[in-house]
Specification:
Bound molecules: S-adenosyl-L-homocysteine
Largest sheet: 7 strands, mixed
Mean pLDDT: 94
Low-confidence stretches: 220-225
Helix content: 25-40%
Radius of gyration: 16 Å
CATH superfamily: Vaccinia Virus protein VP39
Strand content: 25-35%
CATH class: Alpha Beta
Distance between the termini: 42 Å
Number of strands: 9
Order of helices and strands: HHHEEHEHEHEEHEEEH
Number of domains: 1
Amino acid sequence: MLARKRMIETIEAETKYTRRMTGRSTLNSCVIDTMRRVPRDEFVPSSVKDFAYNDSPLSIGHGQTISQPFIVALMTDLLQPQADDVILEVGTGSGYQAAILSQLVKQVYSVEVIETLAGEASKALQRLGYHNVEVKVGDGSQGWQEHAPYDGIIVTAAAPFVPPALIDQLKPLARLVIPVGLPYMSQSLLLIEKDEKGEISTRDVLAVAFVPLVSDSENQETQET
Ligand code: SAH
């Protein structure tokens, strides 16, 4: 598919363009192959399907967006996914990032605070055969204790600070990829690593712009008004 091929070329160009900030001039070929295979058009509303392979975020309703493909690829690469990994995603949204991860690891658990989005994402993932993803409705800043600890955690909404529960739910030598900063302002994509002793190190990878990570109660309010 030509559009998907162009998307990959754009991701590769963006990777080179941002290499001084990210320290990556190429992404892992498994990540690129997965981005080539997963149909992004199946995860967006019909109104924006024509733009599904543009390297840009797209509206998925409820004031939320499916992330820019380059950012999905970069965050996936930073997580260094391994075939045996169990990964937690916070912010299921469309389910696209979860689908990408599901092809690279053993199991993905994903938490979404907006019930309708969680339901739609779950349905799309099942329909397309991504059976190693489980989605639940809830406040992902609390993580998902039942399946913890994780080999990696990816957060796809910007938090004002790193939620402590997510650090707790990382295994030793595991990674957390998370945008941190104020809503709709420039935020920092952080790569946080836990060492064997449980000590944390943080690297600021790139300036990014994500929708905010909200708490459960905030979400109730926005849905009611
Ligand atoms: N990974 C998604 C991107 C979705 S945008 C994709 O591939 O499409 C971020 C998502 O995070 C939104 O759907 C938003 O509702 C959700 N979100 C915001 N705060 C959250 C929270 N506290 N817990 C879980 N999900 C949250």
